[in-house]
Amino acid sequence: MSELTTGGLVLGSALGPRWGSEQTASVLWRLRNVCRQGEQRPRLDSVSLEIRDVPTAVIGYSGAGKTTLLNILAGYEQPDSGVVERSIETVSGIGQHLAGGAVGVGVGVGVGVENASRMPLYWIPQGGGLWPHLTVRQHLLAMQTGRGDSRSGSAGPVGLEEKVDEILARLDLMHRKSAFPGEISEGERSRLSVARGLVSGARVLLMDEPLAHVDPVRKPGYWKVIRELSAGAGTTLVFSC
Questions:
Q1: Other C-beta atoms within 10 Å of 92: how many?
Q2: Could you give the angle at which helices 186-199 and 160-170 cross, rounded to 10 degrees?
Q3: What are the pLDDT digits (tens) for 69-86?
Q4: Packing angle between helix 219-233 and helix 160-170, nearest 10 degrees?
Q5: Could you tell me how far CA 81 lies from the centroid of its own chain?
Q6: Structure confidence by residue, pLDDT tens digits, 137-151
Q7: Rounded distance, CA 17 to CA 4, Å?
Q8: What percent of the chain has pLDDT over 70?
Q9: 28 in Cβ contact with 87 (< 8 Å)
């Protein structure tokens, strides 16, 4: 675990066999003197940092600027001053195309599937960005089109439905697969947002406190699922907590 502290935020990078040395990992984002103003005080004040292609946690007290930082990484917000550089190889197109929580060009067709159209980045904001007209299971099946609509009748890529059911089962959502977002609990909505991100097959998964509404006793088990599925898919996690 390596750490970088800046302006009340702590970045922790956890390495494993896939990533090797953090120093040799490519840079996903590089921020230089980034500022974002708030009503009473700056939300980010001259933040300079690098986020490399390794699992990275953004840690800080409430109001430290975690959500603002992730919004800027996703391209949802722009800094008032400073420079944000993004890696062309892994996150090209950030901020140009938004569909639900998805950011970038192309759509991954399932966890663990490599292809030329692989989505470079999938963003899970605090609100989750769920689609009220789709059921729990349809949220995941919709990732075959990237348009938030799984009702076309298309069977989708081979193996996608099995992968969808596996993820729903591991996140304890199978019994709610036919429910709509308005019919499930906050914790279930949080897990659904994560499940949709995992099935996207994105190169980088950017998550803003993804399990904030989940029972603390059950969080470690769900984080284990997230780590295992993302590692199996070759997906890098960048998240706040």
A1: 13
A2: 140
A3: 999 999 999 999 999 998
A4: 150
A5: 25
A6: 999 999 865 444 444
A7: 22
A8: 74
A9: yes
